[in-house]
Amino acid sequence: MQLKRWHVWTVPSLIILFSLFWYKNFLVRYAVNAYGLPASFSVTCLSWSMNSLSELKVEKLCIKNDEYIVTIFNAIVSREIALIGKLDVQYKKSHDGTSQNLTATPLQIPLIAQRPRISINELTVATEYLSKPISIGLYEHQLNMFRLESDLQGEVAINADAVAVRLHLDSPLIYRNTPKQIKHLKGQTSFIYTGLSVQATADINVESAFTQGQCEVGATVFGQLFLDFDIATASADLDLSKLQTEAVGTTCIDSLPETYANYVKPLLAHPWDISIPKIARGTTDTIAISKITANNNLTDEVAMTDMEFDINKAQLTFDWHWAHSSNTLGTFTHRAQVGVDEHQFTSQNNLAFQTSELNVNGVNLHAGVGDIEFSVNGNITASANFDMSGKGVVQTQMLRYESAQFNDVRAAIEFDVLRGNVTEIDANIELNTDSVNYEQLVLFDISAKANVALDKLQNVVLRSESSVGKIQHADLQIKGVEQQLFVNAKLDTSESHAKFRLQTAIDAIKTPSMKTGSIDIASQGDFNRSLSLEHIISYAEQELLLEHQLTPQGHPFTLTISQQPVVNLQPLLTQVMPQLQVTQGTLNGKIDGDLALQEADFRGQLKDVSVLYDSHFIDGVDTTFSGSLNSGGIKIENSKLNIEQIRTGAVLSNITADYWVDGQQATIAKLRANVFNGQVYLPQLHVFAEQQALALSLLDLDLGMLAEAGRDAGIALSGRVSGKLPIFINGNAISIENGTLYNVDTGQLVVEDNASVNALKAQQPSLTTVIGLLDNLTVNTLTSDVNLTADGWLTLGVKIVGENEEQAQPVNFNYTHTENIFTLFKALRLSDEITQRVEQALTK
């Protein structure tokens, strides 16, 4: 009976035990979810077994939370040790997208003295914020003391009221996630978490290099930093005073253009030390740093003070101060108040500099000072959107640029710039300087004012007024120059257009030989791929039109002189040739050429021009000429000259000639003129030749008119003569050698009441009969030798063969006459009634 009872209980008991073992995973998981875990956790998988009565093996354990999933693989747990082969932690986003705030409560960790030590061969943490999962080895070498290996290397110590963590900064995880600019990273950081605060200390040594093009800036950060974060107030104090940053950019000097390297060298030649000497404070809402400084212990110091950052409002404010002092650049300061409100940026700036001598890209500045104030407002997310306005003054005793030197310069500027989809500018500039020297050119008392405006449609308008007291170049002086300029331009991405107007007024131009009165120049131009200019020059009621272009191929121009009275040029001509007076006539002309090639073609016309030079009167000059200029040489084509008359003692009329100029040689040819009712002819005359021989021909000159020219002799002649006069020119001296005159028909010689003849008859009565033969003589042959000395003495060797018809007596008469022709011609000119009338008209 007892045996049967045992069998009855044994079989069901075995069935129950077998069922419990078969469903152990489900039952344990159910019990843990129901009684062992908080409500937010759940065990989603469990596979375990008993290795022995003292050792439990867990093949897989899954614990799920709203923010992460933990999976344990191959864990062996005993009373001495819990060895986990692999533990995966998969973080997820929270449902509302926000993280829970920390709660400030003191840590109270229930430490169990008799528990197995924990070791995790591979702790893997994966999150979408990391490019790859973190792998950590966690080993509890002493109770509550853990060693970290693999991706993170360090130690973790757990106490009842604090958790301390120490990490090595050269851990693979940290090194893998540092920017590529970090070349070297050493040191360690420690955290102590108490539930009420987090205290962190870091000993770091970082070397980095930032490269832009060929410029590399290296930075070294070393030292200690301290962080004290109060969880209750969500505020932190960060002490960086023992952290030093050194930046070096010497390699950037080599990558700079040579013209700028010397000016930037003082900024980069020595390392920069950056430090935060005072504690920075912050909360979850704000960060405040009292001061950040940077200096290179030589020329520069930069300070950012009173920095405040409102995290919630995205507002940042700070004061900026940059001071520079070097022999190359002098002293320079930049002060600014900076503010950022979300995406909007504002700053109030002041720039000031002072230098004894400054050389920047060919500009040499002596004793210069400057002070500029400006403000900048913009959007930090769109660097092209900002507006800037300001004003300032720059002064210098001397400024040199290449061959130009400016003395006592003062420049003032006031500007507004709006940069958006397009740029808008409005600027006023004022410049004053005592003098400017450029090679042999000197300008005195210069002042200029200008306004430049660029509107939304990219139209540029420039208005300026300028004046120069005096311009001097060698013996040339220009006084009182005033200019007004207006420019209207259209800036286009494909093509630019511009038009301008310039009005210039000059009080006077003076040279050693002349002085002009006021000159006005009205200029206008147009730019479209090339610059086209037009100038109307007005002086003494004369107008010149100059048109020219500036192109990549050359500088073509046209100078036009419309038909105008030449009398208007008399004030200018009087200064050049005081004895020259213009009485009437017109001129016109045109020159076409290229200034770059120094080539030009010209044509001109003088019409009905009359001039008086000393007591020489030239009337009715008409000529049309054309020619060319090439590299300073002049050429005039063969042209015709017509002159109504020339009164220079004897009256020459109907003068015609050909003339031309080739280089330095000017030639007059085929010169014909009517004189004494006959004609003179000169084959050729070289105007500027120092020495030359001329062959002047006399044709059919009226002896009666010749005798009338010497009316004081009391002798009357009739008939005509011709002849040849060899004329020799040597410098300013003119002479005639072996000239001849001869009659071409029968003439008549009549001696009237001549004082000399009457005196001779009274002295020698015996000669009365002989002299009487000349009273009325028919001249069959008349010849004369003609000689003229350089000082004006004319000698005529006259031979007359004739007959006194009343007395039927043949006569041979030889007579030598000597007289200073210059004195004679002057007397004839002064006695000429027409000349007198002209002179009287000119002197009214």
Structural key phrases:
single chain; 844 residues; mainly beta; six-stranded antiparallel beta barrel; 11 helices; 49 strands; 12% helix; disordered N terminus; disordered C terminus
The termini sit apart by: 179 Å
Q: Structural class, from secondary structure content?
A: mainly beta
Tell me about the biggest sheet? 6 strands, antiparallel, barrel
| Spatial order of the strands forming the largest sheet | 12-13-16-17-15-14
Count of individual helical segments: 11
Number of strands: 49
Quaternary state, please? single chain
Indicate the mean pLDDT: 82
Morphology call: rod-shaped
Tell me the helix content. 10-25%
Give the strand content.
over 45%
Radius of gyration: 57 Å
Low-confidence stretches: 1-27, 829-844
Can you describe this structure?
The chain has 844 residues and is mainly beta. It is built from 11 helices and 49 strands. It has a 6-stranded antiparallel β-barrel with strand order 12-13-16-17-15-14. Strand 40 and strand 41 form a beta hairpin. The longest helix is centred in the first third of the chain and has 21 residues.
Write the layout of secondary structure elements.
Blueprint: H1 2-22, H2 24-36, E1 42-52, E2 55-64, E3 68-78, E4 81-91, E5 117-126, E6 134-142, E7 145-150, E8 154-158, E9 163-168, H3 172-176, E10 182-193, E11 197-212, E12 215-230, E13 235-239, E14 243-248, H4 251-255, H5 258-268, E15 272-275, E16 280-283, E17 286-295, E18 300-310, E19 315-326, E20 330-341, E21 344-360, E22 363-379, E23 382-401, E24 404-419, E25 423-438, E26 441-454, E27 459-473, E28 476-490, E29 497-511, E30 514-515, E31 519-528, E32 530-539, E33 542-550, E34 556-565, H6 570-576, E35 580-594, E36 599-613, E37 616-630, E38 633-648, E39 650-662, E40 665-675, E41 678-686, E42 691-702, H7 703-709, E43 715-718, E44 720-730, E45 733-743, E46 747-751, H8 755-763, H9 768-772, E47 776-788, E48 793-804, E49 809-820, H10 821-831, H11 833-843
